[in-house]
Write a structure and sequence with these properties.
- The protein is an alpha/beta fold.
- Helix content is 59%, strand content 12%.
- The chain contains 20 helices and 9 strands.
- Helix 3 packs parallel to helix 4.
- The radius of gyration is 31 Å and the shape is globular.
- The chain starts with a strand and ends in a 5-residue tail after the last helix.
């Protein structure tokens, strides 16, 4: 699960540690990256820990929260801030809100209060993340277009020449060329080239990412890609993995040629022309294709995958299975409005986005060096009905994993609820209180509790109280009214009636009962 980073600024060590423990044990979507006892110490931490959210008290020594937030806003005008305050300091809190605080937490605050505010903060954090992700994709698309133009000796913006040089500095270039004895390429034909290019680019990019190498792959011509990677990082095992995965998944053989250290942008075309002539084989599908068309299409397809991942993550974060199901149904249905070629690419985009979401959200084995690509893909001769069926199967597999993950998550929440009941059975212990403690809607919590535990919430609480009462009756000399109070009953007579219903005898009879030898 995507987690935001939070900095806690609070001068009371015990309260600060309690908040930190709450974040560590809860499923709030946040991780604590720093703690500070006053505003001055927090300012010194900001650049170091780079939080997404600051949770700060107001009344603190050295530098109070108001002054701290004022300083913070000069360098981080958009950072999320939540204010901690006591009732007597409410006028200070109003001033903090004028500094752009997202919300307030009034001390003393319960765990439910913290959950409510931090969920609101997480929604805002994810909105910012999704926007930044979209901007990043658009910026990378523009850079890729300019780099592609430089490689092809086409006009590009000289104003960004220095930024391209910065991208190329310390990098090496690799030419990845499809070998045209490939039956897959001949089988798919010209109109399906975009599908193969899209699948191939995702295989390479995922393998490179899994190897923890910073790189980018450019489709320069329909059958030639240039990989820009950190110098000296592409070892033989990774190159073999790229070749093997391309052959295994796409039935495409490739040649990988080192082009050496990356030059400046203005010398890219000369270097590329020197190396692309190593194999003059001509693909019959290349005729008539515009030079930049494939690259633009590939960038758009890759951007679509990112967009789909954001949509899927948003639906999951809403915590409603119905909204995720509706989104997936709509995405599959939309495929039918596309042309046959676009339909195959759309189905593959959806499948790749589903697998990417699984990797990010469901915590699979991170040591597995597998491409983020389905084990199969739409074939050239498939009908629209077959493409739709294939996409539906990908969705079905995703939902199976999602439901398993959700069940495990729910089991953990119910386990937490049971522990809460066992600790606070002698208090009110209402369903609404426990549901709020595990941050679930009361109605949904009631259904989930019975499904998981096997009995209703009320019955479980009652049974827990009666079991505790039975222990006290057997092992102490406490009076019955004292035991009733100790297990959460204000009325001894009511306690007696409930106890009799469970044990078929009164508390007094239970205490005096001896099991026959």
């Amino acid at each position: 699960m995507l987690k935001g980073k939070v900095l806690i600024v609070e001068d009371q060590p015990n309260f600060r540690k309690g908040l930190t423990k709450m974040f560590e044990e809860g499923q709030l979507g946040w991780q604590v990256v720093g703690e500070a006892g006053n505003g001055q110490a927090a300012l010194e931490l900001l650049d170091q820990v780079k939080p997404d959210l600051v949770l700060t008290d107001i009344r603190m020594p050295v530098m109070d929260g108001i002054e701290f937030v004022g300083h913070l806003r000069r360098s981080y005008p958009d950072m999320l801030v939540v204010i901690l305050t006591g009732y007597k300091n409410f006028e200070y809190a109003q001033a903090a809100v004028r500094h752009g605080a997202l919300d307030l937490l009034i001390k003393p605050c319960t765990e439910q209060d913290v959950h409510q505010v931090m969920n609101k903060a997480y929604e805002r954090f994810y909105e910012k993340y999704a926007l930044l992700e979209k901007q990043h994709v658009q910026h990378k698309q523009q850079q890729d277009q300019e780099l592609r133009a430089a490689l092809m000796d086409l006009p590009y913006s000289l104003a960004i020449s220095s930024s391209l040089d910065e991208i190329l500095r310390g990098q090496e270039l690799w030419l990845l060329h499809w070998v045209y004895e490939n039956t897959a390429i001949h089988h798919y034909g010209k109109h399906d080239m975009s599908l193969l290019q899209f699948a191939f680019s995702n295989i390479v990019e995922e393998l490179v990412k899994e190897a923890a190498i910073h790189a980018r792959l450019l489709l320069v011509e329909h059958d030639r890609f240039v990989l820009i990677a950190e110098s000296g990082m592409l070892d033989e095992s990774l190159k073999a993995a790229i070749r093997d995965a391309s052959l295994q998944y796409l039935k495409i053989r490739i040649e990988m040629i080192s082009m050496g250290a990356a030059p400046t942008a203005k010398h890219l075309a000369g270097l590329y022309n020197r190396f692309k002539g190593w194999d003059e084989s001509v693909d019959p599908h290349a005729a008539g294709e515009g030079i930049g068309g494939y690259g633009t299409t590939l960038s758009s397809n890759q951007a679509r995958v990112k967009e789909l991942e954001v949509q899927l993550m948003s639906a999951i974060l809403m915590g409603q299975e119905d909204s995720l199901q509706q989104l997936l149904d709509r995405l599959v249905k939309e495929l039918s409005s596309k042309s046959p070629e676009e339909m195959k690419i759309g189905a593959l985009s959806l499948s790749i986005a589903l697998l990417g979401t699984i990797q990010k959200q469901f915590d699979p084995d991170e040591n597995s060096l597998l491409p983020k690509i389905p084990s199969d893909m739409p074939e050239a001769n498939w009908t629209p009905e077959e493409v739709t069926l294939w996409a539906s199967e990908q969705v079905k597999n995703f939902l199976l994993l999602f439901n398993n993950w959700q069940a495990l998550k729910n089991d953990n929440l119910i386990e937490k609820a049971v522990k809460y009941i066992e600790e606070y059975y002698n208090e009110a212990c209402r369903l609404t209180d426990v549901a709020a403690y595990v941050h679930l809607n009361a109605s949904y919590f009631s259904v989930l509790f019975k499904k998981t535990v096997g009995e209703s919430f009320t019955r479980f609480v009652t049974r827990t109280r009666m079991d505790k009462a039975a222990l006290l009756l057997r092992n102490t000399d406490m009076k019955i009214f004292e035991i009733a109070c100790a297990v959460g009953f204000d009325e001894p007579n009511y306690f007696t009636n409930v106890f009799k219903q469970q044990y078929q005898m009164t508390p007094k009879e239970y205490r005096n009962y001896r099991v026959p030898e």
